[in-house]
Structure formats: structure tokens, C-alpha cells
Automatic annotation (TrEMBL):
Transmembrane portions of the chain: 25-43, 55-73, 79-100, 112-130, 172-191, 198-217, 223-243, 255-273
The name this protein goes by in its record: Uncharacterized protein
Signal sequence range: 1-18
KW S-adenosyl-L-methionine (keyword) present: no
UniProt lineage: Bacteria, Bacillati, Actinomycetota, Actinomycetes, Micrococcales
Keyword Membrane included in the entry's annotation: yes
Amino acid sequence: MKYLPVAAAALLASAALAVSSWLGVWPLTAVVGMICLMVALGWPQLMGVTARRSLSAVILCAGVVAAVGAAIVERVESLFFWSSVALAFGVMVVFIIQVLRGTGRPHRLESTLGACAGVLVTTTAAGWVAGLRYPAGMAGAGDGGLGLLRVRGLLPYENGSVLGVTGPGGELSVVALASFALLAGALVACLPVRDAVVLPLTVLSAFAAALGTALFWGELTLLFAGVLGLAAGALLACFRRFLVLQGPPAGRLSAMAVGAAPIAAMGAFVYFTERLLFA
């Protein structure tokens, strides 16, 4: 029960990303904003820093600016541009806040480092929006609506490729696939079993969920799905190990931030893996 808020935040964030990815870019952007809000509210408390309200505002604003920027840009090269801008300005504002607090304040270094880490987490969450838009959403190919859920089963189709990323219709299911992998991995990571057993199972379950989703949809290839599944499982396994070593977070907001943080951070990996492996 002491880890329930952590598990609930991770599972709800993953499920919301999967559902909103079928509804379009702006619903997904709204969900990413809510994930950033969960991280922003609990991150300063988790880090044990002072000036929590102002730092939470900076962490939230940086994530929202990055997500909205990824949703409105019109060039592929600019999909992650606003994440870089938001990260730079967010870190700068964190330092300004520390200067304005005056000299002699306690835990100034911890506050600065902790807040900068929170800004990094929320700005990388924009990768979920960028991953949905790249490349189909950039050329007026729609908002990523219900047509993404195209079940093709295990039968082969034309123009398939082992190294490619798209199916015959050129449609992408990257966000939903990664979300399902995170869901499966998070469910296994919640098992009250020793780490020697549950950590490998977390990675394997996320990997299997990604491959199964790719086979079911037929939109993404096994290489791409496998890379995303392994990354999702490894990320969740690391956070599970961190929690076990550090103990449960003190406070519900902190626990929610811990649960939402790996889901947000996965966004950058989704987008850049798509850019690297897209054929």
C-alpha cells in the first residue's frame, strides 16, 4: 500500500497516453500537460528543496511550453526545438530564483540541482507529442485519429520491412505501442517480489508487450517495437530499484511525481528512436 500512489500514477499516465494518442495531437498534448503537472507538484517535495511553489511553477511551465511547441510547429526539424528552448530558459529561471532568494539560504545547491532535474523531466515529455506528429502529422495527414487502430493480425502485408518503421498505409502507432509497453512493465514492477526476479520480468514483459502490439497491429516492425519495449522495461526496472533502495516517497504528491517521471522521460526516447530508425 505504501507504493500505491507511485504505481497508480505510472499506470494512469501510461493508459491516458495510449487513449489520447488515438484521439489526436491536442488530446495527447493535454495528457502530457497533466503528467507534467503531477511531476511539478511533487518534485520539489521529493527533492526536499525550498521555494517549492516557485520551482513547481517553473517545472510545469517548461513542460507545457515544450509540449505545446511540439504540437504547433510546422517543420519536422522543429518538433523538439521548443523542448530545448524550454529546458534552457527553465534552468535559467531556476538560477534566477535562487539569486532572488538572497544569501545564506539553506539547501540552495540541492534546490538548484533538484529543480533543474525536474525541468529536464518535464521538457522531455514533449517527445510523446513529437513522436505522434512525426512524420504523418507534419504533412496534413491528419491528427492521428481512430484510423491508427488498424488491426492486421499476423498475416504478412506488402511493402513490409524488418528495418522499417511504417506499415503499408504509412501510419504510425508509436505512442500507443510505447504506452502499452510501459503499462505491461509497470504492472509487473508492482509485484511484491524480490528484485532478482521482478526486474528481469519487468524488462521482458515490456519487451513482449511491444512485440505483441506490433504483431497485432502490423504497423510497426519488430526491430522498432523491440527497441522501445526494452527501453521502457529498463527504465521502469531502474525506477523500481531506486524506490526499493530509497524507500517509499514521503507524501502523496512526491509519490505521484515518482510514478509519473519515468513515463514523462520515455517521451524523448520514443521520439529520437523514431527519428533514428525511420526508414
